[in-house]
Amino acid sequence: MTFLSLNHVTHQYFSKQGFTKAIEDVSLSIEEGQFVSFLGPSGCGKTTLLSIIAGLLTPTEGTVTIQRQPSSNTNIGYMLQQDYLFPWKTIQENVLLGPHIQGNITEMKKEKAIQILEEIGLASVVKSYPSQLSGGMRQRAALARTLMTDPKLLLLDEPFSALDYQTKLKLENLVSQMLKQYGKTSLLVTHDIGEAIAMSDTVYVLKARPGRIAKTFQVPDHLRTLTPFEARQHADFNDLFQTIWKELDQLESESIN
Amino acid sequence: MNRNPSTDETRFQQHLKKLQKEKRSIMIWQLIIFTSFFSLWEISSRLRWVDPLLFSSPTKIGDLLLAKITDGSIFMHMRVTLLETVAGFLLGTVLGILLAATLWWFPKLSKIIDPYLVILNAMPKVALGPIIIVALGPGYFSIIAMGAIISVIITTIVVYSAFQGVDRNYVKVLRSFGANRFQIFKEAILPASFPTIISTFKVNVGLSWVGVIVGEFLVSQKGLGYLIIYGFQVFDFTLVLASLMIIAIFAAIMYQLVERLERKLIRG
């Protein structure tokens, strides 16, 4: 059954100088429990697309539905490039931000927060402030915050791009495992080809100005079952990497000409 | 690695000692400036290097203060001015923050009144003194209003621009949880602006003293501003300088209190 579907979504930004088309005629559908990636150069409207799916932005044309409902009615988790933990709140308060906003902090939710923080390896810093944590720990806390509200759909906007390489690889594994465990449908935006292949079931390659889907790649089954780190070591990983690399290269030269 | 941990410990002790020495030397210098300023003042007044009628002298000021403290007459003036200043400060600051919040809440309103804010800010507020006094009557209310009006517009402008400068992504996080406008303000906009709000507190402490003293110049029968203007009229500059000293001490205390509040509000 189709979980998320985008129907001919187009979005323009207006300014005094005129308008720019951020994305044009994007249509796709994602099954429940799938992990898909959007891969593309800067300016391909990745963040715009996520904001539209999250219901934070109304597209100038087209519709987005999640389980046949408008997306603004659905509980969506959003992870950003940086953690955006609130520096004046403790890690626990940050993780409980969703329930706090929705006005339903209960003992059960508090226990759940502690449980998620334990699973994610942050049990010892529950009462700390974000400034006392490393970048990787902060991004993990942001993941815990996102999972707290039990979102049906998870939007990941380059969540690993600000981290060092080692932390990034570790976090890819953790996030992928947590999302599988909780059975989430997820949508990752990235400009890292390896990350897209290692984590996803489907990779959409976007072209820039205006952003539209150029090509779709299915990640082979035997790579999907591996953890992102193992997948990166697999021989077939490189083949797919090369194919996508060429595709992106070609798109780039087309856009220059 | 540390084959000899005792050396590390001694190095640390040396470091602490150095810090302490530095702190002591700063304090000594501050004391030197303090004593030499007042002794120089005293000496030049006694030896008539400066006109003692105009510049008085620390001992005369001290004697006067002591006399006024013993007969208790100074306390009434101190209380009046202090109350007016604190009230003016609180009123101006709170009103300014409320106005900034209103502008944030209604972005269109902020665009509409922007030029008026600029003009009001540029205008010297103490020039409104006579109008305020006639409107509110010569008394506490006018003086408190003077203390408030001098800081309210600049507070509005500074705090509003802090509200606008809050990273949009914090708002995005909150909106993804379905936060309404009030929650966005309470959870992100306001706490993220605390550092700016505190620094407007610091500026406003000084501004309210200006407003209140000018207000007392214009109208009052009581207060430190009144003592200054009275001393000026009877050519008693010892009284003028003594009042000034008290104001300086009070202003410094208020500033310290604001700094303490700052440390409490802003963590990390």
UniProtKB/TrEMBL annotation, chain A:
The keyword Nucleotide-binding applies. Keywords: ATP-binding, Nucleotide-binding, Transport. GO terms for molecular function: ATP binding. Pfam families: ABC_tran. Residues 4-233 form the ABC transporter domain. CDD domains: ABC_NrtD_SsuB_transporters (cd03293). Gene3D superfamilies: P-loop containing nucleotide triphosphate hydrolases (3.40.50.300). The keyword ATP-binding applies. InterPro entries: AAA+_ATPase (IPR003593), ABC_transporter-like_ATP-bd (IPR003439), ABC_transporter-like_CS (IPR017871), ABC_transporter_ATP-bind (IPR050166), P-loop_NTPase (IPR027417). PANTHER family: ABC TRANSPORTER ATP-BINDING PROTEIN, TAURINE IMPORT ATP-BINDING PROTEIN-RELATED. This is ABC transporter ATP-binding protein.
From TrEMBL, chain B:
It is found in: Cell membrane. Residues 74-258 form the ABC transmembrane type-1 domain. Keywords: Cell membrane, Membrane, Transmembrane, Transmembrane helix, Transport. Belongs to the binding-protein-dependent transport system permease family. The chain crosses the membrane at residues 26-44, 86-106, 118-137, 143-163, 227-258. Its main location: membrane. The keyword Transmembrane helix applies. The keyword DNA-binding does not apply. This is ABC transporter permease protein YtlD. It is a multi-pass membrane protein. It holds the Pfam family BPD_transp_1.
